[in-house]
Amino acid sequence: MHGHHRMLQTNTDPNAPMYYNGVYHLFYQYNPYGSVWGNIVWAHSVSTDLINWIPLEPGIYPSEVFDKYGTWSGSATILPNNKPIILYTGIVDAKNTQVQNYAIPANISDPFLRKWIKPDNNPLIVADVSINKTQFRDPTTCWLGQDGYWRTLIGSVWGKQGLAILYKSKNFMKWTKIQHPLHSVDGTGNWECPDFFPVLLHGTNGLDASYNKKNIKHALKVSLDVTRFEYYTVGIYDTKKDRYIPDKTSIDGWKGLRLDYGNYYASKSFYDPSKNRRIMWGWANESDTVNDDVKKGWAGIQTIPRKLWLDPSGKQLVQWPVEELETLREQKVQLSNRKLNKGDKIEVKGITPAQADVEVTFSFSSLDKAEPFDPNWDNLYAQDVCAIKGSTVQGGLGPFGLLTLASQNLEEYTPVFFRVFKAQDKYKVLMCSDASRSTLKNDKTMYKPSFAGYVDVDLTNKTLSLRSLIDHSVVESFGAGGKTCITSRVYPTLAIYDNAHLFVFNNGTETIKIKSLNAWTMGKPKMNWSFGHSSY
């Protein structure tokens, strides 16, 4: 991906995350010179625990004829001889012509792999005449087929058809295009930052990209240049035909499932062999109009890394903050068996509400009061329904949830909540993270949507759970154990630092019980640094 959509961004998409010899690496698009996006370099940070990060000098930056005009996104692959290699997109001219290059560590025995070299046989992949060479970018992590060929995907577009173009290579140096794309969809527009990986049918363990035995599905995620959000499908990778076929249960287009229904883009996952898990990194783009002056606490602007796996239903992915995050938990408060009648709100005291981790399970005694779901809403995004049915609109079963980053008298707050509807033959659970009342700043250009997604959850036991990670200007929320995730960027003016409050609320006629609530003050990482402000 690239950083010219919002000129103020100085650092964006996560690139080439990997685990190598005990160290986690994260590269990300960084602009040391402010808003001119031709200057983008790959900033580089390392960690041994995914929480405390050390910033290093940039790993990749424009320096050769094959990337003189820009070093855009890419991915890392660990070769069988335990050598890491990065494929990335280079911009070669002022017309934005894109090629695929590789870089390798200058010194494999440097534990941090500080220096990367770009050998003279670059570029490895150049667009042929059938490809739009100005929309040809973001190579994926490569996988090794049973036929002995490496494969990678590159995002592209033809007309309005999004494409995942497939290349293969025996030796990683000479690549040939497979005639048909791995997958393509009409009407989606350009595909950026594709991510393609196997997931186990059962359990939460992750798999290496090359894993292709029984009992797996594959997931394909694409970032949509046109809409600025991502979607994914779950399906089957037919290795004989080199085609990916989404399951019938996956909507394959703009209305498809999202990893995150909020400020979240250009995500990239990697396999972590040290804990047998797949980890997803995403970028929570700024929605403020000017650079924010409330310094962030513990998250950086990259979102919290999430462990990712296939839901037991086989229909969707599930994500949950990596367990290492829990090492930052400090003082804790608990509530249990508290009733919330319509209009009630209970303040959670004894923690720092501007920097907190909150886990809550709600229960209710009946589904009878669920409001009818208007069939016309089927054509809308969940976000549009949340805009109609916000937290202040009284309901039946819901709205209930948290009021995060709230000022004392609720002049500002970001509510994260559920509302249960009765559709024709089933219940529909809407989850919202509504930034529309998050700040008194009233700039017309500020993006303050009522982010929302539906939660595919069985309500037989009449409970719904929610976890929210609150960090000054970011609220990351996980509904029903991570089935639906929403990240909101917000910029309160009153609800900052010690003046922020946290409430649990109910605004529906059905009484809600706080079955259990645990909340923690979150500490800061030991080597805390802000992604946009490291000095080179």
List the helices and strands and how they pair.
Layout: E1 11-20, E2 23-30, E3 41-47, E4 54-60, E5 70-79, E6 83-91, E7 98-105, E8 116-117, E9 125-126, E10 136-137, E11 143-144, E12 150-158, E13 161-169, E14 176-177, E15 183-185, E16 191-200, E17 216-224, E18 230-238, E19 243-246, E20 265-272, E21 277-283, E22 306-310, E23 317-321, E24 329-340, E25 345-347, E26 355-364, E27 371-372, H1 382-388, E28 400-406, E29 414-422, E30 427-434, E31 450-455, E32 463-471, E33 474-479, E34 484-489, E35 501-506, E36 512-522
3D structure, described in words:
By secondary structure, this protein is mainly β. It folds into two domains: 11-321, Glycosyl hydrolase domain, family 43 (Tachylectin-2, Chain A, 5 Propeller); 330-522, Exo-inulinase, domain 1 (Jelly Rolls). 1% of the residues lie in helices and 45% in strands. It contains one helix and 36 strands. It has one helix spanning 382-388, and strands at residues 11-20, 23-30, 41-47, 54-60, 70-79, 83-91, 98-105, 116-117, 125-126, 136-137, 143-144, 150-158, 161-169, 176-177, 183-185, 191-200, 216-224, 230-238, 243-246, 265-272, 277-283, 306-310, 317-321, 329-340, 345-347, 355-364, 371-372, 400-406, 414-422, 427-434, 450-455, 463-471, 474-479, 484-489, 501-506, 512-522. Strands 25, 27, 28, 29, 30, 31 and 35 form a seven-stranded mixed sheet that branches. Strands 10, 11, 12, 13, 14 and 15 form a six-stranded antiparallel sheet that branches. The two termini are 23 Å apart.
